[in-house]
Fold these 2 entries.
Entry 1:
Amino acid sequence: MNSEREFIISCKDKILSGYNITVQEAEKLVNVSDESLQFLSDAANEITRKISGNLVDVESLINAKKGKCQEDCTFCSQSAFYKSGIDTYKLLPSDIIVQNAKMSKEDGVKSFCLVCAWRGPTQSDFSQICNIIEEINDKVGIEVNCSLGFIDESMAMQLKKLGVKRYNHNLEASRSFFSKICTTHTYDDRMNTNRIVKKVGLELCCGGIIGMGETRMQRLELGLDLANLSPEECPINILVPQKGTPLEIQPRLSLSEILRTIAVFRFLMPKTILKIAGGREVYLSSEQEKALLGGANGIITGGYLTIGGNSPVEDFEMISKIGLEA
Ligand code: SF4
């Protein structure tokens, strides 16, 4: 066996013995040759199966308030800064959101995430959201997660009291790349919300987007920062360039680079639910199984915030075809 493969095995064994890999080891892992990529993915899969078993976390989401966001994230078609041409709406009425939660439950989905496109909720928006969560709890009984942008400690505590399980707030990009994708808020603003989420005892869902023009080392930097936050869940989105946004003509990442990133993120976050999210269907197409057999153990089903996706039926079939469970 060549020394590169021996190195991958030594990192895998270190993790399975309960230790973390060092930054230097992570740098070496992310740069393994293309010939060793499948070996790296297989090792990431072994870590996933041994630590988390065969279960795939399947979540659906609703874009509860769409577009006209006052932030300028360059990847986002919901930003009011860009002419993306998407339809927009204010916070949806509770009956539509509750109905969506009900349909998700009937589809066999375990958790339902309420997502809103804004910097953060006003008090009045937040009160409405709290009422909606109570209604979902009463009428549906599905695990509720939220992604409401920047929130303060009292809001986080109220969500916790309402039984919200997980709060999503992505870092989006590495610290060294962040100012290239957003100028209306900072990386530290995002970090701050994540600290509040953890402080009140909500589970943290925190990930990012790859393929926005960052280097491989900046992807690793993001992975290392995420690992330091120890999120319970980490969504990995792959940029799908959106019409009218500054990243509209961003070249696509290769499949091997995506699989390399997923595998290394698994080495960095062995216990985290690593969720392959936006861009899964577009980039991985018929090779989506490779992500779930190469370190990922979660998916978003039924579409995303501004683009469609696989139906729950298709996704559950895919999961069972590769011998995993949902
Ligand atoms: S990513 Fe979120 S904060 Fe940034 S523009 Fe889009 S909706 Fe607004």
Entry 2:
Amino acid sequence: MAHPLLLDSLTVRGLTARNRLWLPPMCMYSVTAEDGRPSNWHVLHYGTRAQGGFGTIIVEASAVTPEGRLSPNDLGLWDDAQVDGHRRIVEAIHAGGALAGVQLGHGGRKAGTPPWRPDVEGARSGTLPGWELVAPSAAPYPGHAMPRALATEEIADSVRAFADAARRAVAAGYDVIELHGAHGYLIHQFLSPLSNTRTDAYGGSPEGRRRFPLEVVAAVREAIGDDTVLDIRLSATDWAEGGLTGEDTAELSRQLVRAGVDVLHVSTGGNVPGKVPVGPGYQVPFAAQVKQAVAGLTTPGGGQAQVVAVGIIDSGLQAEQILVAGLADAVAAGRAALRDPYLPVRWSHELGVNDWRAAHLPVQYWRGAWR
Ligand SMILES: Cc1cc2nc3c(=O)[nH]c(=O)nc-3n(C[C@H](O)[C@H](O)[C@H](O)COP(=O)(O)O)c2cc1C
């Protein structure tokens, strides 16, 4: 095979990732002191995957407010005291040769759950007692506590919380800021008519429902300046009658790019329980739809908007085919990288590349190359 596209570098806003393989954000639920501060676990976990050869690593959802955490053991960026720990993660990722990103999130009506780990009783079922939930509307996610609808004037505080967290992320050294606009969390809750029944300026029409996400994008773009990549993760479809569709997301994506987004990371679902046709590459068609929608649009940073596909992309060949077909600009592999931090090295081999220097993979490990 000719030099695989997967191993081509990708430059956005002057920042170059050595290849087109991303580690998507995955909560580790490992902040035992419940103070949102990263620990050695996080430094090792992300550093190892950088050494394994990922081009871009997105650190797990880090909450912009304490009540926005999905669980008490989530990372945070709501407090300056959390910056040092994030800086250690960034340094480990950079030492491994990858770009470092972080996902900024707020769980809204789905916040405050027990961690999703097999060693924790009642994992991810319902809301922890005493956790105050806020959301666009007073409508609970099934099985979770009733959230309080944000007052119109409180919405500006949420926008500011995202911008302040983004400023801290830049201070920690992150190259990429990813907004969590997917999986039924606060930004997605505003976007979807299934969770947003507001009658003020932040609801009532696609335009109203997009107001909060677009305000967050504008505020974060201003907070991070011109040298940091802004990425947003979206659930392209709610997989439910009356919910968001691929067409809605294609149109929204164009608005997001005009507002300052450089990268769209396309996932699906999570806002309402439903039947999802999960299978290999099942979300890739939605990434392709977004890619087509933003093709030809120039970002305010002067480049082309990039699209990342994710969801059961489990082999190098599958990843390469997605890129060669032009369905996305980069691919992310999550769970496969939990069982194998050296996935990029393995996929390079699968694609016939054992020259780790040419592939910009860690040369320190080259003597371990297949022969
Ligand atoms: C343990 C775990 C934690 C996750 N945490 C997050 C998260 O913090 N933010 C997010 O957007 N998605 C999260 N996800 C979803 C992944 O980023 C990814 O989209 C999903 O696993 C599908 O990709 P895959 O088939 O390659 O694993 C998580 C997934 C797993 C398995």
